[in-house]
Design a protein that fits this description.
4 helices; 39% helix; two-stranded parallel sheet; mainly alpha; 152 residues
Length: 152
């Protein structure tokens, strides 16, 4: 299974955003060590969006339309990004689980919207991914992930 991720490897703030990538890679590594999702490991496919929002959109579209992968978009501060990256990767994994053994983009999205009690591994208050989609939730990050993808 391939996850496409636009990421500012170069450009303004790229150093500060390295923690987001570390959080995503840590989450994917954890699920892969446990056997993957439905027996399939997740491989990440990064694209340098150069810290330019317009490039981020182009890269995400390219990943989805040409590479046929899931490509989330995200932006935030350094520490929060590691936390958010970990949660976003966990949501991706949960969507794959809900989509079944032969996931398509449509059944991935439909399956994810059926999740009614998603706690992100008990890192956040449980959310209903259909009802709460797009709503801003108040949450506090108490998990720290360093640039190697492990807890300090």
């Amino acid at each position: 299974m391939k996850a496409g991720l636009p990421y500012p490897a170069t450009g303004t703030g790229s150093d500060a955003l390295a923690s987001a990538r570390a959080g995503i890679e840590a989450r994917f590594a954890g699920v892969n060590v446990a056997g993957g999702v439905n027996g399939r490991c997740i491989v990440d496919d990064w694209r340098d969006e150069q810290a330019v929002q317009e490039t981020n959109v182009v890269m995400a579209r390219e990943l989805v339309e040409q590479e046929h992968v899931c490509a989330p978009e995200q932006r935030d501060s350094k520490q929060t990004l590691a936390f958010v990256g970990y949660i976003v990767a966990g949501m991706f994994i949960r969507g794959l689980q809900a989509a079944g053994k032969c996931p398509t983009r449509q059944n991935f999205i439909a399956g994810l919207r059926t999740v009614k009690n998603y706690p992100a591994g008990d890192l956040i208050s449980a959310v209903d991914l259909e009802r709460d989609f797009g709503r801003v939730a108040e949450c506090y990050a108490f998990v720290s992930v360093n640039n190697t993808g492990s807890r300090p």
